[in-house]
Amino acid sequence: MNWTVNDLHIILVGVLCAMACALPGVFLLLRRMSMMGDAISHAVLPGLAVAFLVSGSRASWWMFFGAALAGVLTALFTQWITKFGKVERGAAMGIVFTTLFAVGLLLIEQGAGNVDLDAGCVLYGALEYTPLNLVTLFETEEFLIQIPHAALVIGSALLLNILIIGIFYKELTLASFDPGLAETQGFRPKVIHYLLMTMVAVTTVAAFESVGSIIVIAMLIVPPATAFLITRRLPLLIGLSLALAAASAILGHLSSQALPALLGLPETMSSGMMATTSGFLFLLVWLLGPQGLLKKQSRELVAPPTP
Amino acid sequence: MRPEHPPEFPLAIHDLTVAYHRKPVLWDIELNVPQGTLAGIVGPNGAGKSTLLKACLDLIPKTSGEVLIYGKPYEDQRDLIAYVPQRESVDWDFPVSALDVVVMGTYRKLGWFKRVGKAQRQQAREALEQVGIGHLADRQISQLSGGQQQRVFLARALVQDAEIYFMDEPFAAVDAATEQAVIELLQNLNAKGKTVLCVHHDLATVSRYFDHLVLLNMRIVASGPTSETFTRENLHKTYGGKLNLLDDVAEALKNVGR
Questions:
Q1: How far apart are CA A153 and CA A36, in angstroms?
Q2: Domain B35-52+86-256 CATH class label
Q3: How many CB atoms lie within 10 A of CB B132?
Q4: CA dist., res. B33 & res. B35, Å (int)
Q5: Fewer C-beta within 10 Å: chain B N or C terminus?
Q6: Quick check: helix, strand or coil at residue B37?
Q7: Looking at this predicted complex, what is its ipTM?
Q8: Which phi and psi angles does A229 have, rounded to 5°?
Q9: Contact of A44 with A238, CB cutoff 8 Å
Q10: A170 and B21 in contact by Cβ < 8 A?
């Protein structure tokens, strides 16, 4: 394969995306709300569309705001429907996010004439095109350091997530483990819940442009789920999730370039391959990890359980 | 200030009603729990025992009524309260150690943003020693037995250093050794003048464990010193025609010779 600086840029964006998603993903997983990431990543679409139609520009603060708002509304509507409609939570989530997603698609369809936002891009992202829009970070006579604009956006989201989890680590852990205790201690688990939902929404929007709404879900959930097979220590769980996220992105892009060539096929989608790789890593850990499937069998072969 | 609920009572409940989906679960609860008692809340399944605790602590909305802690609204008195939820209410597969869980009891005093330090961890270690599982401090909570998990919860309540302890079935599904450890702990707290309110389901041990009794079946059937309240008539009123239970009741009454 032919290495260019473009590959580095794509990997940079991919790694930042995956890591930014893995952080809120850990807490979604621990709260057994993994599908909320799915719901929010889809439901931000009408927010994006409306903000775009109103402001007329892409990647603006309006888009961020609209999408984050839509994301938080998803969490809120789900809560309401569960409570007042006496509908099971999973079903309520299904109702809210499919409806919002459909509305978003319709809005984009309707605005298609004067909007360069297309449904395909929303679903799959445009990771390959991120190197086309560069910003200069640092410039002297000898040096010129440029990164994709997308890296700046998703990098900011990553930084924000690190900050929030750094500051609210104790509160997030408490509210995730025992909301009852959090409430009696005056920590307002509901506020913390919506903080996490906002984090998911903002991260999703930031990652959207690059990897699309479906692969975002893989990035939110798969690395933390893989790390959970390895450890039951929260700091280590977070660290491992980040490492697995980065590894999936790097290996994903490399294999998207190299693997198809082995079969004589043209290169394939990087973002798709990144998600596939994270799934593959999960499988690997599931089979070979500390509590892995094969491990258990081999141990039994060495020392059969006494009857 | 309501004259029937003077501020010397650690817990006073006035006209409390709680409903789920418009179906009442608790009706017209009037209750005073006296200072320094070890109080049991007893009643059949679905009587609203846990609901009563949760409504006091604002964990579920009240339809009407008022809860006073030493004469003041609960929100102003959070520092005085420790809550031990039912063991099944949390996910024991959560990636934290026994020590981490106990340290959570210190968060109220730490407040927002502040980090856990040596002092908090030391305090938590001591509490774990006190409930007899100091050697398990660093173990992940899924690797603890049911009884050990219950002890972790109690240690967490201890570090909260409260005046009133709300406990939801601390004796549920624990081994005999843990049951003994729990009751010793409750008696220790009691000896220090703390007030303990404890949801309990085993009629056979009521009179041995508690000096104050609240009999509940959606309404308060009776409330007062165990010696006066734990009577055949009151138990009949509480448990109604649940015949399979009446044998237990007879057995329990035989034990106290009444």
A1: 23
A2: alpha beta
A3: 18
A4: 7
A5: N
A6: coil
A7: 0.85
A8: -75, -20
A9: no
A10: no
Pair of tokens at residue A179: 């909301």
The mean pLDDT of chain A is 82
Are the C-beta atoms of B203 and B235 separated by less than 8 Å?
yes
Measured at the alpha carbon of residue B178, what is the angle toward residues B174 and B181, in degrees to the nearest 5? 145
Q: How far is B114 from chain A (nearest CA, A)?
A: 8
Residues of A in contact with B83 (CB under 8 A): 180-181, 184
Q: Six-digit token pair at B155?
A: 């240690």
- Chain B nearest C-alpha distance from A63 (Å): 31
Helix (H, G, I), strand (E, B) or coil at B219: strand
Q: Where are the domains of chain B?
A: 35-52+86-256
Binary contact (B140, A232; C-beta < 8 A): yes
The CA distances from residue A16 to A155, A249, B133, in Å, are 6, 9, 43
Determine contact, residues B225/B213, Cβ cutoff 8 Å.
Answer: yes
Alpha-carbon distance A295 to A287, whole Å? 7
pLDDT in tens, chain B (258 residues): 566 777 778 888 888 888 887 788 888 888 888 888 888 898 888 888 888 888 888 888 888 888 888 888 888 888 888 999 988 889 999 999 999 999 998 888 888 888 888 888 888 889 898 888 888 888 999 888 888 999 999 999 989 888 899 999 888 877 888 888 888 888 888 888 899 999 988 888 888 888 888 888 888 888 888 878 787 777 877 887 664 555 666 666 666 655
Secondary structure letter of residue B211 according to DSSP: S
* B136 three-class SS: helix
Q: How many CB atoms lie within 10 A of CB A163?
A: 10
CATH superfamily for domain A5-216? ABC transporter involved in vitamin B12 uptake, BtuC (1.10.3470.10)
Write the single-letter amino acid at B202: D
The residue ranges of every structural domain in chain A are 5-216
List Cβ neighbours of B27 (8 Å cut-off, separation of 6 or more). Answer: B17, B218, B219
- DSSP assigned state of A88: -
| DSSP helix/strand/coil, B117 | coil
Q: At what angle do helices A89-110 and A61-84 cross, to 10 degrees?
A: 140
Residue A299 pLDDT > 50: no
Inter-chain contact B21–A86, Cβ cutoff 8 Å?
yes
